[in-house]
Amino acid sequence: MKTLWLLAISFTALSTPSFAAMTATQIVEKEIVIREADGRETARRLPADKVTPGETVVYSIKYRNDSDAAASDIVLVMPVPKEVAYVEGSVSGGDANVAFSADDGETYVARGRLTVEEDGSTRPARGDEITHIRWTLTTPVPPNGEGDVSYKAILK
Distances from the Cα of 60 to the Cαs of 26, 27, 35, 52, 96, in angstroms? Predict the structure, then answer.
């Protein structure tokens, strides 16, 4: 069994007077698939207290605007732990531009443009080479508005 650590999140608001009223919470859960009596499979999320290699982990940020004014220019960043591999296509987050980093958050690009250098050449980055994911919200968060962003990863 491996231990997962709760990661720090980066939460930035550019030119947002109401930034002090924005709150964000990171949640780490494991996703399991349960076969129902009728044969249907249902995904359920449980606390990630114990996760074994090969299991799916869901990293989420739940955010809320506790102010009386809309908050704009919100950027949320989550690191991807080295102990996991990002699951392709698993990012969710409503109205946001999503970008990925493979260099510890130094640069961000769209997933299809993310590359790494290896043996003097450049190649597309694999899911296990992604180090950070960034969501730039494209619409203001209204007063008392809330939302969430997330991604899935497989524990190595």
Answer: 6, 5, 25, 19, 14
- Tell me phi and psi for residue 45, to 5 degrees: -110, 135
| Residue 120, token pair as written in the block | 């003097």
- Walk along the chain (156 residues) and give the pLDDT tens digit of each residue: 333 444 444 544 443 444 558 899 999 999 999 999 999 999 999 999 999 999 999 999 999 999 999 998 899 999 999 999 999 999 998 799 999 999 999 999 999 999 999 999 999 999 999 999 999 999 999 999 999 999 999 999
Phi and psi dihedrals of 89, rounded to 5? 75, 10
How many residues are given for the chain?
A: 156
> For the structural domain made of 10-155, what CATH number should be given?
2.60.40
